[in-house]
Amino acid sequence: MLFAFSLRSAVASLSPLIGHIQDDFSVPAAIAGLIGTVPPVCYAIFGFATPALERRFGLEALATAAMAVVTIGLVARSLAPDAGLLLAGTALMFAAVGTGNILLPPLVRRYFPDRIGVLTTIFTTTMTVATLLPPLVAVPVADAADWRLSLGMWAVFAVVATVPWIGMTLRRRSAERADPTEVLPGVFRRMWRLPLAWAITIGFAVSSTIAYTSFAWLPSILVDISGVTPAQAGVLLSLFAGMGVPASIAVPLLVTRRGATRILFGVAAATGLSGIAGFLLAPAAAPWLWTALLGLAPLLFPMMLVLVGLRSRTHEGAVALSGFVQSVGYGIAAVFPLGVGLLHDATAGWTVPLLVMGGVIACSIPVGVVASRTVTIEEEWSRRHGAW
């Protein structure tokens, strides 16, 4: 929980403070844009790198290092004297967050193999709360003190999160000396050849694409076509984000206890497409309803994370699948916020961008059929290519 909280509190604490930061030094539009692009890019890059790092150092040691680097990045960007170093500190922090994202499902798989649903519910809910909390307190703290304190105070939580992982690292190394385990090389490369891995990856990409594109453009869409004020658009964006709270609580348990994977894929597709249809056909009629419906499409996020644990049988399989799903998924998602903006400029409207978002959501329908099959990646590999 501490680990999950620090991964997300680090993400959401900067954007509300850009105005305060610009009172001290200029933050060019290009730098601000790069800061917004850094998260999915770092998640993709370090998603590819994490399985190799994990084989070299181990899950617990890498978790400890990730929290330590998050702490350093948070402190560094709170002390940044200019926009360039603000960007550098942010990139350093998100590199560690990208690694941490990959580690959470395998850690749950290792320590709670019979409680994957419950623990996934706990950490995804914690991540959702940690995403909502910093924007609520960032500006009040900056107004009462300054933006540096508001930005840097989250490092305290990262420090606290690091402490138990130091103990877990020492404990794990003692256990491995007593009972060494073999980690198979090249497992990550096998993911490219498994339809199940691709199905979970596309589901993750759909969720991330809708989330990042909506955070980037939903307020503009609401103001331009639904006739709401900028302040109301901000509230509706909070509604979009808030729809993730009940989803993060319910979805992992429904998947693990009720086997509701296929039904939930259908719910995500139906609600997301209904929200898009509302914005296209009657944008001003009920913008809060269209926003809430669209906000349910990213329920695929906690479902894909729990499927990483359920669709892998071995430790190395869980690490490789988590790395593949998140690196490729975030890599795909990183393209769409920019692409949607370019489409809006090229067409001078939101119809084509909304149709593209609807097409992305529709991709979850066929992949849901594959991801719903109760087979592990190890079993699928054995059936297709021989012994794991």
From TrEMBL:
Primary location: membrane
GO terms for cellular component: plasma membrane
Keywords: Membrane, Transmembrane, Transmembrane helix
Entry GO MF terms: transmembrane transporter activity
InterPro entries the UniProt entry points to: MFS, MFS_Cyanate_Porter, MFS_dom, MFS_trans_sf
PROSITE patterns noted in UniProt: MFS
Protein name (database record): Putative transporter YycB
